[in-house]
Request: fold
Amino acid sequence: MNVRLYLWQRTTAAVMAPLVIVHIAVIFYATRHGVSAADILARTRGSIAWAAFYGLFVFAVSIHASIGLRNILSEWTPLPERRVDACVVFFGLVLALLGLRAVAAVVLP
Amino acid sequence: MIGRAVKHRDSALWIAAMVHRISGLALAIFLPLHFLTLGLAIEGEARLESFLRWSDQPGVKAAEIGLVLLLTVHLLGGLRILLIENFDWRDDQKQLATLAAALSAIIAFAFLVRVF
Reply:
């Protein structure tokens, strides 16, 4: 991992730490009486705050997971570096697209 | 020779690093599925509700507890790494790793009590 990727990895980790803590708190809160789609969507639909929160989360996790996966593929598989890079860029883009689609699904009215 | 080469694997800190890596890999595999599930809301509230009712099965709930454990263990393992790299060196690294594992287990157990 080069210095630029290392900094992205650690910066996204630091950004996500408070987001994950809030997310775990939301999981506990949301499951207090069982999870329902109506409860989830009532909380998130039309909320700019949740859109920003989960939008940032998706952005950070797409970068963080891609770099982590790159480290694993580089160290644990015989794949050449260029192929590893292509795989993780594809993975990161798919993750970001699916994540933003999910955010749009629960936030847009 | 091989014994010496893998001796470091007995170390609690090597195990902590491996747990951090495996939990991260598992979360990376789970995330696309999580996003696809939430994306069901595009097709309407009823579609998401239908999936959530399916997820009431004990086996799925058990998997959810595992995911909470993975998320917590990866979070605390990551905080440990940020602490090591950005602050003064501490001599209690093994205790920090053990504390992270214990706290993760407590949070996952609390979630278990909540969903069952």
About this structure: Residues 76 and 100 of chain B are 5 Å apart (CA to CA). The two ends of chain B are 49 Å apart (CA to CA).
